[in-house]
Design brief:
2 domains, Glutamine Phosphoribosylpyrophosphate, subunit 1, domain 1, eight-stranded mixed beta sheet, binds glycine, 20 helices
């Protein structure tokens, strides 16, 4: 797979990292099952001062450009976010939404929610046909989009916590769109597999003459450059009002969508308090609802903390404990969480240590507990290439930003805004379009997450910052992959804290996933020793092997600086100075 790593020397005037070495136990070499395709012992990218990691090297380099010009981690993260909209258009976006968790070196924290909202004309049953059957309109086409939040959210973060102007931080993105960049193998493969894009206007850019762009092609996006320029000059008004907004609404009207100029004009990001929890002496700062990420991760880790030790990574007791914790946390996630501006959410209870103790008592040491009998059709659901993307940024002062952003499925709804050059999300599918029926990730969700106008659809995005016992940033981590975001992100944390892996090994370790329903334990092919698979089956676990689970991007503090690792199962870039 295509990939990239750069470390450039520190330039004059850029502060060197003065952070103390992290307070963690010495690292120990990881041991993975024989034949696992990502052997342990690989190295991470190291930089003494600052680091950015994402699924696109040009986007990570955009962040480093801003850091070298004296910007802080928030300036750099916003530069990276806009650059991803150009260089990783399957998930990087201005037509979608996301979440950003910030921890400044002075101790201030923030959780910015710029999730899309349901349009004002949305109705609870808008995706059911005349016979009450769920259609695919929440996934493909104009009706699938929520009102985009990305531009408003990034601008808000910059204004509150950045030091530079939007015009300045957007320059690398505008340049990438105007002058182009070289399509790498990861993007080429994503374009090749994006059947949905072929159905709409974006095909003219990504399938010129009917053929997908191939690796090595220079991709220039003049329409997107104009849109970004409008945002750089006018701020969010350049997107939510004026010709870009008019183009978006015209596109909606052409294809039977329902987003109006009023929807766009009234979109507002929300600033929330991060969920602050502890795990074995470390502090986690995680995203609260409207994402389920922070609650579900906290609940899972609280359950796992009730074991003094989880046992060896990859052993039967380890799989059993971790899967049982996820299964219980997802049962709560799927039934009790929703947009807190619309429904009551029992945050205190779900994140409390005493509740975790109670859940632990429901776990047998020897048997899997069935979530419930699961309809065979649910088990057989096709899985989308799930796409979202996460990026992590740190600077020399110790400011840290974890951001996850998404169009939902790869390339969103497939709908491309003519003349403005960007894709729209299909985030409406993250609602329970028909409570009790699975969505495209197989998640079976309830009334709390039913569609209402102006409501945010529940997310699994989990941008997370972990602090060591001295309250200094240790890890900046998050992932793409629908519900597997929660399990993938928390496993990198477990690998670092419980299994004392270095970051490269923590990212390469085989992963597992359980989301309550379908009631199966997803494992990575080649990642579980045959004897462990046999014992798990004997305990009652229904194993579901997949080639690859989750797309994580992470940074970890090490003595003398930072290590960055992009997802070894996908493409990306770690860049620092
Ligand atoms: N669209 C994936 C998520 O928000 O969970």
């Amino acid at each position: 797979m295509g990939a990239g790593v750069t470390v450039t020397p520190s330039v004059g005037g850029t502060a060197r990292a003065t952070l103390a070495a992290p307070r963690i136990a010495p690292r120990v070499p990881a041991r993975f099952p024989e034949g696992w395709r990502l052997p342990s012992g690989a190295s991470a990218t190291f930089a003494p001062n600052a680091m950015a990691v994402s699924n696109s090297l040009p986007a990570s380099e955009a962040a480093v450009e801003i850091l070298k010009r004296g910007g802080n981690a928030v300036d750099a993260a916003v530069a990276l976010g806009f650059a991803l909209a150009v260089s990783w258009p399957e998930a990087g976006n201005i037509g979608g939404g996301g979440y950003m968790v910030i921890r400044l070196a002075d101790g201030r924290t923030a959780a910015i929610d710029y999730r899309e909202v349901a349009p004002l004309a949305a109705t609870r049953d808008m995706y059911l046909d005349a016979n009450g059957k769920l259609t695919d309109k929440s996934i493909v086409g104009h009706l699938a989009s929520g009102v985009p939040g990305a531009v408003a959210g990034m601008a808000h973060a910059l204004e509150r916590y950045g030091t530079m102007s939007l015009r300045d931080v957007m320059q690398p993105a505008i340049r990438l769109a105007r002058e182009g960049f070289v399509v790498d193998t990861g993007l080429a493969s994503s374009i090749r597999n994006s059947e949905r894009v072929r159905q709409f206007e974006g095909a003219s850019v990504f399938f010129p003459n009917g053929q997908p762009l191939v690796a090595g092609t220079r991709l220039v996006q003049p329409d997107l450059a104009r849109t970004l320029q409008a945002i750089a000059e006018r701020g969010p008004a350049g997107f939510y009002r004026g010709w870009v907004a008019d183009s978006l609404v015209a596109e909606m009207q052409r294809g039977g969508g329902i987003i109006t100029t009023q929807d766009l004009a009234q979109y507002t990001p929300r600033e929330r308090r991060p969920i602050r929890s502890s795990y074995r002496g470390f502090t986690l700062l995680a995203m609260p609802p409207s994402s389920s990420g922070g609650v579900t991760m906290t609940e899972s880790l609280n359950i796992l903390e009730t074991w003094p030790s989880l046992g060896a990574h990859g052993s039967t007791p380890w799989y059993h404990a971790v899967a049982s914790a996820y299964q219980r946390a997802f049962i709560d996630r799927n039934s009790k969480l929703g947009d807190p501006d619309f429904v009551p959410v029992p945050l205190e209870q779900l994140t409390s240590k005493s509740y975790a103790q109670a859940l632990r008592r429901t776990i047998s040491e020897t048997r899997a507990t069935p979530t419930r009998d699961v309809d065979a059709t649910m088990q057989a659901l096709p899985r989308e290439p799930m796409n979202t993307t996460h990026y992590s940024v740190v600077d020399a002062a110790g400011n840290a930003v974890a951001t996850t952003t998404t169009l939902n499925g790869s390339w969103g709804s497939g709908v491309w805004v003519r003349g403005a050059g960007f894709f729209l999300n299909n985030e409406m599918d993250d609602f329970a379009a028909q409570p009790g029926m699975p969505n495209m990730f197989g998640l079976v969700q309830g009334e709390q997450n039913a569609i209402q106008p102006g409501k945010r659809m529940l997310s699994a995005m989990s941008p997370t910052i972990v602090l060591d016992s001295a309250q200094q940033v240790l890890l900046v981590v998050g992932a793409a992959g629908g519900p597997t975001i929660i399990t993938g992100t928390s496993q990198v944390i477990l690998n670092v804290i419980d299994h004392r892996m270095n970051l490269a090994d923590a990212m390469r370790a085989p992963r597992l996933h359980h989301q309550a329903l379908p009631d199966s334990l997803t494992i990575e092919i080649g990642g579980v020793a045959p004897a462990v698979q046999d014992s798990l089956r004997a305990m009652g676990w229904a194993l579901r092997p997949l080639r690859s689970l989750v797309n994580v991007n992470a940074i970890m503090r090490v003595p003398g600086g930072w290590e960055g690792v992009y997802e070894p199962r996908r493409t990306g870039g770690a860049s620092g100075h």
